[in-house]
Amino acid sequence: MTIESKKAQRAPDSEICSNRPSSKPRDLEASEGKDLLQELLFLRHKVRQLEQAEGEGRRAKAALQDQLHLMQSLMDTIPNPIFYKNTSGAYLGCNKAFEKRLGLPKDKILGRTSRQLFPKELAEKYAQMDAAILESTEEHSHEDTIIYADGKEHIISLNKGTFTTAEGRVAGIVGVTVDITARRKAEEALKKTLDELEFRVMDRTRELARTNEELRREMAEKEKAKEAERASVEQFKVFAHSVVHDLKSPSVGIAGLANLLRRQYGDKLDRKGRHYCDQILKASQNVVALVEQINAYLSAREVPMRRESLSGDELMRIVEEEFADSFQERKIRWGVPRQLPMIKGDKLAILRVFRNLVENALKYGGEKLSRVNIAYQKDGAHHVFSVQDDGEGIDAESAEKIFGIFQRATVSKNISGSGLGLAIVKEIARRHQGEAWVRSHAQGGTTFFFSVHEDP
Predict the structure, then answer these.
(1) Phi and psi at residue 313, in whole multiples of 5°?
(2) pLDDT tens digits for 283-325?
(3) How far is it, in rounded angstroms, from Cα 161 to Cα 175?
(4) CA torsion through residues 184, 189, 191, 192, sign
(5) Disulfide-capable partner of 361 in 75, 370, 389, 405 (CB 3.0 to 4.6 Å)?
(6) Domain segments of the chain: what residues?
(7) For the segment 89-132, what is each residue's pLDDT rounded down to a tens digit?
(8) Rounded CA gap, 256 and 81, in Å?
(9) CATH class of 306-453
(10) What is the CATH number of domain 78-179?
């Protein structure tokens, strides 16, 4: 009850007593009234201070509770288990991830120690670690494999350190657990992949070494083959020059004598004698033709080429004029494209290619031959020409070898020839950075192709 209420309760008595004569002087009564009023004011001030302090305490407590709630909410949102405990090892707080790890609610964790929550061996390990941390106050980290409450094995990284009071006194230990199971599995998978890759690289390296060794052997064999080819070519050149030198003059002489014998003494020879004379003449002419073909082959290989711009139309006109009589006599149709391009090459060599291919068609086409066509197409940087006939054709076995030296097709057994005509074609194509090949048709006929580079 306040002083004012007490005064109010005493008011009637005062009023009653006020009618009585006062036993004290009035100034003394006034002085006592002032003291009482001051005491009342002082008490009211104290009451206000107490009420104000009580309100501030309630607000501070509420603010502190809000702060604690915020900190707990923040901890609960962190997916890694977090805990803190006092220096005696009793848990003071944790987040939801830690509750999940242990499989216990918070009220079953707080106030308990590791020995009450974990298996004995693991609890002892944690106790020793906590003692070392409290003694050194240094952070500690280690990895371990543990079983979570879900029964699954997890690989964790446990990080611990101390926390202090506002005065700097160690108050306990705080810890954070990071589940590194996925990372470890990824590292193991990566290591396995790297090991497999290293094994594959080693295996591939061994394979490459074997391949390189095989390539070296192949290159050595090819080099030997080239050496043998060069030696063969040199031998052939020596042989060819020897043939040209030693056979041409006698062959020409034999042919001349046989002609002379036939003209001057033909009427004195019987039929068998004239036949023998004809055979001698034919044989000598064949020898002369062979010598000329050998000369042509040597020229195709060795004589420097004179490259110039050539008109395809002009080349075809020259070839047609040379074979016009044969075409007319055998009633063979001659076909050429309406317009052929300009090419670069050796004129005499290119003309020899066309001559040899047209001669082949006329010589080996047989009675079926009725047409010879020239065709052209552009293939990248090469001009490709073809000479097609509808004659007898050639077999597949012959098609693979007829471009070799002294190689002839099966159909040419009874037809005279040197076996150098297509070898000359192939050599001229090679020197023009091109190729020569043949295609036989099932319905009959043969097409010979040769190509020349647009800038040989």
Answers:
(1) -65, -40
(2) 766 666 666 666 666 666 666 778 899 999 999 999 999 899 9
(3) 6
(4) positive
(5) 389
(6) 29-76, 78-179, 306-453
(7) 999 889 998 898 889 998 999 999 989 988 888 888 888 888 98
(8) 117
(9) alpha beta
(10) 3.30.450.20
